[in-house]
Amino acid sequence: MKVLVIGGGGREHALVWKLRQSPxxxxxxxxPGNGGISxxxxxxxxxxxxxxxMVALANxxxxxxxxxxxxxxxQLGVVDEFARRGWPVFGPTKAAAQxxxxxxxxxxxMQRHRIPTAHYAICTSGAEVKDxxxxxxxxxxxxxxxxxxxxxxxxxxxxxxATVAAAEMLSGKMVGEAGARVxxxxxxxxxxxxxxxxxxxxxxxxxxxxxxxxxAGDGDTGPNTxxxxxxxxxxxxxxxxxxxxxxxxAQPVVDGMKAEGAEYKGILYCGLMMTPRGPMVLEFNCRFGxxxxxxxxxxxxxxxxxxxxxxxxxxxxNGIFKWSKDASCCVVVASGGYPGAFLSGKQITGLxxxxxxxxxxxxxxxxxxxxxxxxxxxxxxxxxxxxxxRLKDAIAKAYAAVAxxxxxxxxxxxxxxxxxxxxx
Length: 424
Ligand code: AMP
Prior knowledge:
By secondary structure, the protein is α+β, with helices and mostly antiparallel strands. It is 29% helix and 28% strand. The chain contains 14 helices and 24 strands. It has helices spanning 10-19, 51-61, 71-75, 78-84, 98-101, 103-112, 126-133, 159-170, 239-259, 292-297, 304-313, 351-354, 391-402, 418-422, and strands spanning 2-7, 27-32, 42-43, 65-68, 89-90, 120-123, 140-144, 153-156, 182-186, 191-200, 204-206, 211-212, 215-217, 221-224, 229-232, 265-275, 278-285, 327-335, 347-348, 360-364, 367-370, 373-376, 380-388, 410-412. Strands 12, 15, 18, 20, 23 and 24 form a six-stranded antiparallel β-sheet that branches. A five-stranded parallel β-sheet has the order 3-2-1-4-5, sandwiched between helices. A four-stranded antiparallel β-sheet has the order 6-9-7-8, with helices on both faces. A hairpin with a 2-residue loop joins strand 16 and strand 17. It starts with a strand and ends with a helix. The mean pLDDT is 96. Adenosine monophosphate is lined by residues 118, 141, 143, 153, 185, 187-188, 192, 214, 271, 282-283. Adenosine monophosphate binds at residues 118, 141, 143, 153, 185, 187-188, 192, 214, 271, 282-283.
């Protein structure tokens, strides 16, 4: 089988790496891919903002299955276009992807289907914001409705701060069109967890849970990023809680979307806060998370292709995934300055020293390759991922590998997974 993966980050490298392990996969293509992915898949340029560009590429390559990594092509309706042509494709349609692409849609949907989430108000003007804020006590969270690459959520300590944040969003200054509508939300307290399920439109199967680290600095300080690291281990979510989340969150979402005429097929990522009132949904993503996918797939012992195909063909079952009891840890190595301004084009050394270390895999995110050398080409550069029977050892292994790698201005958090070790 020929498989095409759309995207070019660490998540897509992890997907390519795992798909290549399937005995049924004969060839993996990736578009656009990156320096590291090009060692494992044939890469092709593609315009991810253009459905036509992706359709043209698939028309040329004729893959037996296309897997959409990032959210933007889903929002643009690439799955709808592939499905219209009868081409097998993994991911939700444009209508189903609204669970991620519109926070107001997701909140109203959760309310209609009694899925636990924070109290909220949806506003489209300063007057509505003022009125809504009178009903919330500080701290309060202000969110842009649309896709904003992690920049659309502001935690506000006072109502005045919230008024300013909402005004900046509504004016288009902060995140453009994505802020034309805002969601005001009560601020929840608790541990965050990423709970992912695979859905075929009717049935769901849980993946193992992961925890990511969104803030740039150690001790969860500094600005929000796309994610600075993630880890996963069996005790993160026990079987009882997994069942609860399947019955009270994942299955009701899939049933609700079907009832509303927008069948949800693909990965449903539920970002949860484990509050004293019980688990509450912070957000949905309609695709694999990055860097959670790197940590999660490191623990997958079964065939990823089989699972993704089962979702496309409507035969997801409980036993579709076989998970290792090992722990995993992914440390994101970034360009200094990220998520702000950073320089690219720095040569990366030391990758060959860790290329063959057992249970360590370097997923490339922002790299390019020239004359056999790798160079930085993005904010998040590498996802250094390791697996071991105990979380402590997975973390140590990942950091030992990071220590072998270097490039100018290289930056990474030193405390990925540390909180989980402390709480044990
Ligand atoms: P979101 O994109 O909605 O997941 O928000 C990004 C991050 O903001 C989350 O991972 C949380 O850390 C934080 N956050 C979002 N909503 C809330 C909330 N209602 N209460 C507390 N923290 C939140």
